[in-house]
Design brief:
The chain is mainly alpha-helical. The chain is built from six helices and two strands. The protein has a two-stranded antiparallel ribbon.
């Protein structure tokens, strides 16, 4: 656990973990529909994941002695932080949503003026699913790596005290 990552990439990744979910939500508000309503109703399922993400960012990346900044695989965890951050932002931009009026759009199709294009809607939904998978995979890897590095750090401190 002796290799370190410079402050800039770690801090940027930590800030992305905190801010990109909010930007993804803002993008989803461009064309709100039932998916957003469901996300609000079941926000109690999403909120703990976001809180864990904030704790990982604060504990692992934003502090100068953060556990993920001094880990051997620090660049892997920074990459995972960016993957999950970009993933949630992509979901907000590309996930198709609709209401009772029968129309369905995404932030991408609305912002690019492609509301009448079925191909754009199909592409947007495919991209939304891809970004959703990236979001979940990056988040899972990041949390697992954070836990592993916490355990390794605790074991190293115990070994140092015992010696």
């Amino acid at each position: 656990m002796n290799s370190r990552v410079s402050a800039t990439p770690a801090v940027l990744a930590g800030l992305a973990l905190i801010l990109f979910p909010l930007l993804g939500l803002a993008a989803k508000l461009v064309y709100p529909g039932w998916m957003l309503v469901i996300a609000i109703w079941f926000g109690w399922l999403l909120l703990p994941g976001y809180i864990i993400q904030i704790v990982v960012a604060a504990n692992g990346l934003l502090r100068s002695n953060g556990v993920l900044r001094r880990a051997r695989g620090a660049w892997r965890t920074i990459t995972a932080a960016w993957v999950t951050s970009v993933g949630i932002l992509g979901v907000g931009l590309f996930l198709i949503d609709g209401g009772d009026d029968g129309n369905s759009e995404s932030a991408m199709t609305v912002l690019l003026g492609m509301t009448d294009s079925p191909e754009a809607k199909d592409l947007s939904m495919i991209l939304g699913l891809i970004f959703g998978l990236l979001w979940l995979a990056g988040w899972a890897y990041l949390v697992i790596e954070w836990i592993v590095q916490l355990v390794l750090g605790r074991n190293a401190r115990r070994a140092a005290k015992a010696a």
